[in-house]
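Researcher: I'm preparing a figure for a lab meeting and need a structural model of a single chain. I don't have an experimental structure, so a prediction will have to do for now. The sequence is pasted below. Please return the structure as tokens so I can convert it later.
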Amino acid sequence: MKVLKFGGTSVGTVESFSNVVEIILSKFKEDQVCVVISAIGGITDKLISAVEFASAKNPKYLEVINEIEQIHYKFLKELVLNGKTNHTEEQITALLSSIEDKLKGIYLIEETTHRQSDAIISIGEQLSKTLLVAVLNARGIKSTNFEAAEFIKTNSHYSNAEVNFDITNKLIREKFRKTDRYTIPVVNGFTGSDTYGYVTTLGRSGSDYTATIIAGALSADSVEIWTDVDGILSADPRIVGEAKIIKEINYNDAAELAFLGAKVIFPKAMEPVKAKRIPILVLNTFNTNFEGTVINEKLGKFTSEIISITSLNNLSMVSLGDITEEINYSVLTKVINKLNKHYLPIISLNHSLANRAISILTYSKRISEFIEELREELKLELEHHDVKKFSIVNNISLVTIIGNKTDNQPETFKKISDTVERLEISSLTYLNGTEGKNYSFLMDKTDTKDVIQALHETFFGDSLTANVA
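Model: Understood. Here is the structure written out token by token.
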């Protein structure tokens, strides 16, 4: 069995949705398949905006629902040409009615919770799944609507739920046991449910995660992640037009690329298949003849001394200094607890007992609320001068060169420093690399593009370039 996952850009237009159907049919001829689908491109953002409008008591949320309705009816009409759409229209109407009911409740009380938000946002995937099942059935292919919340069981950490694999794997095997070779199950990505039956969402790369969860439970032959680029690249193609294809990469390197900003499957989403050595193929919906990138347990073959250049933008550095030695760990605990409360990941942490200082690099999103609460949490320490320095620097970027070898560190670092020096970039802060082969530095966000382009030219020059849809 192959598990095929299609992202929002892959089904973002009627034409691309139709192309996805052709890909599914071609794969179905070769092997048994399960399809995991994301919401139509842009729908999740619309649902998020509808929640925001409703919680602000802005009736504009009704306009957003109407937009979503028109988009899906248009897709249905143009994709199902035999006109037999009444049942599917009823299903879409019912889903949209459930959204409206939930939003009306939020509108009346002017407040929303993560649980309510998950219940609404996840309906985008249910809508696209309903469409795909209708289109496949109209093409004469037996297709079944599988609801992910029935068999992907999680905790109640809404918006970024953790999967209970003991229960989930058992339920998936039971659900799929009765599916024959000539039926295509279609699953809504990004979605699970907790022990109380409430809908949860799986966070970043959630639909990819759904695909690998199913693949791992069923010991599938492979997972195919269909997206809008030719595979994993040597740099962000929006920055470097000549970005190169990485044809093969191992799970660990792919995970590091993803964490450090590359457009790759998020590390969490690789875990269910990594243990079973199930390969993940990253493929381009708009360039189906290209072989893409394979993620597996092998080391990969790289001709360059580096694998890729990544960047994380919109970051903030929070620094505390001159901390009284006796409360150093106490202060660190308070900082980490507040980060967790605001769902702010620690990208880099420097805790120095000798210098009596703590510095944490994290995302700028929600940073103002975090800082406000942290100042209140440390109010006594600041008043008593047990913490004398408290500062924050915003609008910074982390650029990382993912190295390939550990035996030529000095030469690689010299190339990096010489390239950056030519650009006359100031205020660089180098961070320690991992495994002795990676190189990271912080810099002003405004200079990031120039630095990445220059570094890419230094290390890659001319070789195979990517096709970006």
